[in-house]
Amino acid sequence: MLLIVEGLLVTILLVVAYYKYSFRYWKRRNVPYVTPTIPWGNYPNAIKRKIHYGQQIVNIYHQMKKQGHRYFGIYQFFQPCFVPIDPKYLRLIMSKDFHCFYKRNFYYNAKDDPISAHLVSLNGDKWKKLRSKMTPTFTTGKIKMLFKIYLECGKILGNILEEHCQKGTPVNIKEMFSSFKGGV
């Protein structure tokens, strides 16, 4: 019995030591980070279902941005994750340095939920293939051309919504946004 208790105690101590070592990842690299808690990392409220996971990320993001950081590190359990804030870093990561950042921990289920398999959530070769297909689509010239069209459609959509608000009439949002998409 004593041997089992000692084994359990050693196992717990090893797990705690591993977490403490893992939670020093960003400190060792001089990257600003939010202090994590064992074993949840930076998401204790999301895991305990007090705050939605996405809202927890937004809260941490705003906290770090308010402190003037251009990037920071967080922990998902013991897994370190880099979060850029500055658009310059985002552009570099998504274009030039993508080979270093292609492995992300986002949910996607291409079979049952094909919408979840987008450029931000995919990893590895699937991400590289989709990125190579999408890159020619979003050239600067094409985006500038589309921006004017979206701006015009957005003004029309805003006017229609304003009319419904003034009249107090109900709005069929599905139909309205289908028309907005179709107008482009």
Automatic annotation (TrEMBL):
One GO MF term attached to the UniProt entry: iron ion binding
Q: Does the keyword Transferase apply?
A: no
The UniProt entry lists membrane topology as:
Peripheral membrane protein
InterPro entries from the UniProt entry: Cyt_P450 (IPR001128), Cyt_P450_sf (IPR036396), Insect_CytP450_Detox (IPR050476)
What keywords would UniProt list here?
Answer: Endoplasmic reticulum, Heme, Iron, Membrane, Metal-binding, Microsome, Monooxygenase, Oxidoreductase
Alphabetical list of Pfam families matching this protein: p450
Report the cofactors: heme
Locations listed in the record: Endoplasmic reticulum membrane; Microsome membrane
A single GO cellular-component term from the record reads: endoplasmic reticulum membrane
Which SUPFAM superfamilies does the record associate with it?
Cytochrome P450
Q: Where on the tree of life does the source sit, at the highest rank?
A: Eukaryota
Q: Which family does it belong to?
A: Belongs to the cytochrome P450 family.
Q: What is this protein called?
A: Cytochrome P450 monooxygenase
Name its species.
Answer: Tenebrio molitor (Yellow mealworm beetle)
